[in-house]
Fold this sequence. Notes:
Blueprint: H1 14-29, H2 35-38, H3 42-52, H4 59-75, E1 80-92, E2 100-101, E3 107-119, E4 124-134, H5 147-156, H6 166-178, E5 185-188, H7 195-204, E6 207-211, E7 217-220, E8 223-226, H8 227-230, E9 238-244, H9 253-258, E10 265-279, E11 291-300, E12 312-317, H10 324-335, H11 338-350, H12 361-387, H13 399-408, H14 420-430, H15 442-471
Parallel strand pairs: 1-5, 5-6
Antiparallel strand pairs: 1-3, 2-3, 3-4, 6-12, 7-8, 9-10, 10-11, 11-12
Helix pairs in contact: 1-12, 4-12, 11-12, 11-15, 12-14, 13-14, 13-15, 14-15
Amino acid sequence: MLEMEYQGADFGDGRLTARLGLLGARVAQSPERPLPQLMATEAELAAAYRFLNNDRVPVDRLLAPHVQATRLRAALAPEVLVLHDTTTLTFGGTTRRGLQSANDGESQSCFAHLSLCATQAPRDVLGLLRLADFLHPPRESQASSGKAARNARRRARPKAKRVSRRWWDGILSTQKTLGDVCLPIHVTDCEADDYDLFARLWKAHLRFVIRANHDRVVFLDGGRQFLSRALLEVPAVSQREVQLSARRRKREPAARKKHPPREARTALVEIGAARVELPRTRDASKSLPKTIELNLVCVREPDPPAGAEPIEWRLWTSEPIETQEQILRVVDIYLRRWLIEDYIKALKSGCRVQERELESRKALIRLVGLMAPVAWHMLRIRDWARMEPSRPVGELLPASMMEVLRQASVRRPLPEHPTVQETFLAIAGLGGHLKHNGPPGFLVLARGYHELLRLHCGAVLGRQADALRLCSPTAFPGDV
């Protein structure tokens, strides 16, 4: 089933296409294991390393079968979201080619920008549409120059060469991939708050929900003021509860300040909306409009618990906000953005992409692309179990695999017609999950899924061996 996400890549060389199919089958069986344990022979391992270090294997072509399958799934969906995010990939050691030194001085890193396709209702994750890697330019020390000089140099750098350009590149690329299949809604966090991006989206008539980051000057009801002050005049039209996930302590000081750690909790928030006019910023391209009008949805927590940081989201959007239902819909769309963070967690924890012993950035990114469909499948199983626990499991796993799972699930016996939730917990049980430990994480799910695939593979080989023995002219009567 998952192997189909690796079939049909076009590298201009049939051997490379076949190699991708074999590697896909191997990583699907055991995504958390290192390559030497995944490959059956020394020759297979050497071929895997050659494939991952081959410059004729660009990551977009490696991902092409999965992207095409994602596109076909999107064509059947009533409404499609494309969730964009950037993550840091950190690898141990300091001698890998093409990476930059991490802050700890003992490891190296690069950045990956991902675009994940999903649906809003019914909730489903459809697959990855794009993976791109990049490096940040060297940081200037605080002592080397003043803040004003650094900002001036940043503004003088062409927009096309700025790291912030990745958001527009990702949106443009995924729009091209989806083509006339659908007109998706692009969803990002506050890093994408940029006038150039808003203006390009506005001119192209693209749909989006982007969380605000800057307290920029805006026009509201004819008056010019800072956004934070203008929003005080926007009345709340609704209240609702939102579930906040736990947030671990970040490594980087800047990230810790921006996203401090927190406990999981339920927040009661007020929600309002307004039509806001944005003037062009000083560093924006002069070819863009002097002003644009966007809708803004404001989510604020009037009475947070003692010691907790109050929730305040300002969501720039192209979606209509004329009714309470439309306003709440924008909030629901933004809440789906957390799905891409879970996808990144599946890559890092379930597939352990940061623990791979490859010697160059290009090879490591190819391996991330190789693991991308596996992370999607993990997330899909978990998402279906949470969102649609009573959904029939026939859409998730083939009948032969379900039969193996039924026989192997001694700890959690499966009923005759199991649901996704029951199947999910049975797989996690194979990985060592205990009921009192709470919902299973990606690592235990990966172990359980690997064990299921191993048992299924053994069952298939056993049936093939039985068939060969029965058909063999040298078989003895006692063998039958």
